[in-house]
Structures are given as C-alpha cells and as structure tokens.
Amino acid sequence: MSRLQQYVEESKPLAKLGKPVDYIPALSKQPVDQFTVCILDESGNQFLSGNTKGKFTLQSISKIISFIYICEHLGIEKVLEYVDMEPTGDAFNSMVRLEITEVGKPFNPLINAGAIAVCSLLPGAKKEERKEGLWQFIERMMGEKVAINEEVYRSELATAYRNRAIAYYLKSKNFLKGDVEDAVDIYTQQCAIIVDVEILARIALIIVNDGVNPTSGERIFSKKIAKIAKALLITCGMYNDSGKFAAFVGIPAKSGVSGGILTMANHANMEGLHGKLGIATFGPSIDDVGNSIVGMSFLKRLSEGFHLTIF
Ligand code: GLU
C-alpha cells in the first residue's frame, strides 16, 4: 500500500467521531462514514481516494474565493476599509468583537461578518448582476459551471437569524454597503455552491500557484492577492484551530462546516506528485470548532510524513 493510502486508512476510523453540522437543517443529514481525498500536482498527476465525485457544499471555503475576487476588483486598500485581516480566536459566527476595537469592523474576511461585508461590496448595480460577476469568477476557479444546492441554500436562509443580526449590525456601523438582505442572500448562496474534492483541489492549486491555472496557463488573479490570500488562510483559515493547524500541519488551508478542507503545498515530492500541490479532503463529521475530524487527522499525517510545513 502506498504511504498516501496508508494515511487515508489510518485516518478513516475517525470519520465516525464528531457529527455533521446541525444548525443548517439540510446538512445535519449527511452520512458520516465518508472520507474522500484529492491531491493534484502542477503537471496534472493526481492521487484520489474514496468517491471523489461525491458532492458537498462549499460553506466557509467560499469566503476565500469571494475575498480574492473583491480584492481583484477593488484593490486590497479599499477592501481593508470594510474588513480587517486579523485572527479573532472567536467562533466564525461570533458577534462579540464587533463591539470592541474598531467598532463594527469585521476582524477578517474568513469569519461570517467579514464574508458578508465582502458580499456587500460586489461590483454591479443589481443583485443578480453582482452575483453573476462572482459566479463567473468562481467558474474560472472551479473549471465548471456554478450550481447551488437549493435545499441547503433555502434551509440556511430560512434560519439565518444570526447572520442577519451580524449583517444589520454591520450596516448600522457603515461596514456593509447597499442592501442588507441582498448581501446575506448572496453570501448564503455562495455557501451552498456544490463541489467535490477534485474541484476543491483545482481551486487550491490555482491559489498555491499564485493565481495561475497550471493546466491552461490562464492568470485568474494577481500574485499580490495570492500572497495575501495564503497569509489569511494560514492565520485565519481553520477557525479557532488556525494556530494549532499552523503549528502542527503548517500549510495554508480553509475548512467549511459541511466537512470540506481546501489546502495546498508549495514544494512537495510524494509518490509521483511533484512541486506545487492542490489538496482537498471531505469528511462531514466536524469537531467543536467546525473542522472535519478525519480531514484534520489525514492532513497532519500527510504534512508530517512528507514535510509539507512552510515553517
Ligand atoms: N453558511 C455557514 C454559515 O454562515 C458557513 C459557515 C462555515 O462553513 O464556517 O454559518
């Protein structure tokens, strides 16, 4: 058995620990005994394990993509007027810090407050036009058309009391542009975009390759923004475990409450995969902070086994 497969097998029993996220009604039903992995290198070599075409929704992982998009359009200086780039140490949907420090300004774009603020900044006059612009960008990253899981989207929007509270608070402090409900709606839709681990690994590969799709050679965003995105992923990407993840795994990563993790490596050499890698895992059982338990366990083994840490 290859070492990669060995790490998968060693991690798999953990898929049963924890439970799927329960505050989004449609996600609480996900079967827990799944674990899928996709690793892609710059030359198109890949490692696949499990049902890599199995679908799930982006959730929080979408936040890094919309952040990159808005930075490309407005420039980082403008974006920083609405959202900071500092870790919080609080839950992703926490409101507590919005009332301290620079009052009302979200700490970073990877928590809900920051991501909703980003969705309020999308260029365009009408909601549909603003959403379309973002979708077109996401499609260039994904390499396929955007599709929404309607059940997940509707069930989250119907129960998005906390996100609405955050968004109205941001509006009252002038950190949300335009219509509040529009921003919450687009944010909830981007969270419900359907992906699989192969799509996530492609997105990760573009980020680690500084904005260029290595297959087509197309530049999708600038190197400057790629650098900022990777720094954000390292400092804020894994919820309240970001510090420990940086210490023990040491690669830029973003997780979502549906159980996906997008991550990447800069200079790997592992069993037929070389150079920059896009890495994605999916296992729906999450821990208390929101990270996939089986995914975290696999990534720790992977990073230790193949010396992936950037530190
Ligand atoms: N749609 C989820 C929310 O707003 C995303 C949370 C996450 O994946 O961290 O609560």
Approximately how much helix is present in the residues? 40-55%
Structural class: alpha+beta
% residues in beta strands:
5-15%
Global outline: globular
Q: Which regions are unreliable across 5 or more consecutive residues at pLDDT < 50?
A: none
Give the strand order, joined by hyphens, for the main sheet: 2-1-7-6-5
Total individual domains: 2
Q: Briefly note the CATH topology name of the largest domain.
A: Beta-lactamase
Specify the CATH homologous superfamily of the largest domain. Answer: DD-peptidase/beta-lactamase superfamily
Main sheet overview: 5 strands, antiparallel
Report on the architecture of this protein.
The structure is a single chain. With 311 residues, the chain is of the alpha+beta class. The protein has two domains: 3-59 and 195-306, Beta-lactamase; 62-191, Beta-lactamase (3-Layer(aba) Sandwich), CATH 3.40.710. 43% of the residues lie in helices and 12% in strands. It contains twelve helices and seven strands. The strands form two sheets. It has a five-stranded antiparallel β-sheet. The longest helix has 16 residues, at 127-142. The relative contact order is 0.20. The site of glutamic acid has 11 residues, from loops.
